[in-house]
Amino acid sequence: MSVRVVARVRPLLKAERDLDVILRTGASAAPAPVDAKSQESGDRKLAALRDRDNVVRIPNPKNEGEEYSFQFNAVYDAEVAQQELFDAEVAPTIKHLFKGFDVTLFAYGVTGTGKTHTMRGGKSLADRGVIPRLLSGIYRRSRKMEKDSNGETTVQVALSYYEIYNDKVHDLFEPPEKRTLAGLPLRDNGGKTVVVGLTEKACTSLKEFEGLYDQANNNRSTSATKLNAHSSRSHAILGVKITIRSPDQTRVSTASAIDLAGSEDNRRTENDKERMVESASINKSLFVLAQCVEAITKKQHRIPYRESKMTRILSLGQNNGLTVMILNVAPVRSYHLDTLSSLNVANRTRKIEVREIENDPIFKGPARPAPRPSMAASRQPLRPLTASVNVNMPAAAPKDSEKKDDAKPMKAFSVFSDRPQAKPVTQIRRPDAKRPSLSGEAPLARSLKPRQTLGPSNIPSSHADISAARIEAMVEKKVEEILAVRAVSEQSRQTQVRELNDQLQRRLELLEQRIEGSEDARAEGLSYLLMAKQHQARGESSSALRMYQLALPHFPNNEKLARKISILKERLQEKSSYPRQSLATVSPNKGKFGSMLSLKKEPTLTLLGKRQADDVNDYQMNNVGDDGVSSDDDILPRQNKKRATKGLHQNDEDVECLDEYENGSLSPRTIHLLSIVNSRDVSQIKLLKGVGVKKAEAIVDCLCEMDQTSSEDVVSDQPLFQVGSLAQLSTLKGVGVRTVENMRNGVLV
Ligand SMILES: Nc1ncnc2c1ncn2[C@@H]1O[C@H](COP(=O)(O)OP(=O)(O)OP(=O)(O)O)[C@@H](O)[C@H]1O
User: Which ranges carry the Kinesin motor domain (predicted)?
Assistant: First the structure.
């Protein structure tokens, strides 16, 4: 089925005069065939409505004696009310919508020709445009469907509404301050172009719709121009998605109602810079639309859809379902060339075929094989309407006029060269019927030369003899357009660059963080390795093993490290099978846990006792195998007897300290010091006087080993090992008496 194209001529506005009317509408010499089926079904009224006047006639701008005529599916003159247009063109599409077909309705035309009036309309009931009437029809049909099915079928209506302003998509359901510079992105989804991140609002009644629609329209970009006090500066697209759920299937279809911005001649609009930029963007997208239409009808390989967001979304000729184009035209001379250009585009659009394919329903229950799985996704082939040859040429066109045109090149539209006819002024009515007629004024019509020029896309092919002045004007217009387009692209390029910079900056930061993170992790791993080596060098194999194991996650694929760990494990296992009795016999005080645990059991260890313990330690160290691996060596802290004896009597503090060593009574200072050590918190311990990070770590490691060994060898829920005295503290690995003194002296209580 081809795109249905209907023309609507608007009435004269207050500032326009009857004398300037140049358009004529009239019945085609070859009326469109009335659908036999609809007659049979008794729908004669609709058939009559649609079989109305279907030709628009416009004089040749260069020779007023000649007239071009364009035939459309229907033509609605100035007297046609909103209701009539809706009943004839839009109401019939609603039933298709409910059968699962998508419907696209769009208004096309020059600025100020009545597109918004047609689509949105006025506030009064009679003035309501196509969109509110469409919604009203949808709700009425939904209620009926739900009622007829006794509530088994439900219909949900959801709305989306967005505009394309300066080739950026903005959600009209969102307030303008939420807009981003780049607008919303488009994506291709199964052959359809979708806007990503668009708000979809469920809407249950016409009243709710009116509220939403009015609110959203306040967000639309409109401005006053010289040609239209409320000119739309954007293309507005309303999507009405209906979801019909019956017990066995769900059908989704969408009606898209599009109010395109109108093309404008900037010499007539006297637009300022901002309006110029908008205008250039509007003109560019409409120019691309015209190019798409031309490319489709000429069966060209490449259709430039992607050159503008509007053409991408409209996807004329690629969208399934039904498409109705309403061409809005102004009847007056000041629009002469623009009207001619619009008529040309619309005339070509008629030849575009649209596949009448309904959306696939979603079945409930077990999955059914899709009837044509490839069809839903594949795009339809583009082809011109084959039966549309010379559609504008009325069958009864005068033969002599054909002969007369023999020598001329073929025209895309028919030309009547009969005598100038009386202008059907009665057809072009002003909206305000009470307005006094100006027909008595001096006939200025002829003196008013059209100031606008044709764009290169829409110059009729017969215009071989265009005057130099006209060419100059065309060139001037084109240059202006190109400059404005450049301004738009420069603006968007700068935006892109800014966004790119932001993105790059963010990525750089992330990268830095990652590198820093990995470097930190590597440094940590290396420090574990270093500590492991130090432990190993000291013969503390189990500590070394622990450090190697801690290093392993930082070097996950390091075979050497894995090998070291397994060797150490083996050695430790071998050693753990050594008889422990030897130790027990050496020092009955220590029991089987070695010196530290014996210290734990003897918190009041004296220096003498300590020395005895040291002797045992030395003995044990001597019993360690060559490889330094021993079951107890890692548990037994080394002593620094020399340092202990040397530093104990240095001052009063030392004396107090010595007392504590000897009698085990703990001062608040010592209790505090021990609580810090027992906290096993490296960050706290390293702050103690004379203790750096390494020493703090060594202390914590030593305590952890004690915990581990205690829990492994004694009882699993053994409480953590606690250092109970200064003496005990001084026996820890890396801590001598001197260190204990320092630590204690530094503690403030
Ligand atoms: N059929 C009509 N009956 C009465 N008034 C009309 C009709 N069509 C258009 N008008 C009037 O013409 C003027 C311009 O119409 P409108 O704003 O709809 O044009 P437009 O094509 O949407 O313009 P733009 O592209 O600049 O947005 C308005 O004042 C509108 O009320």
Answer: 2-352
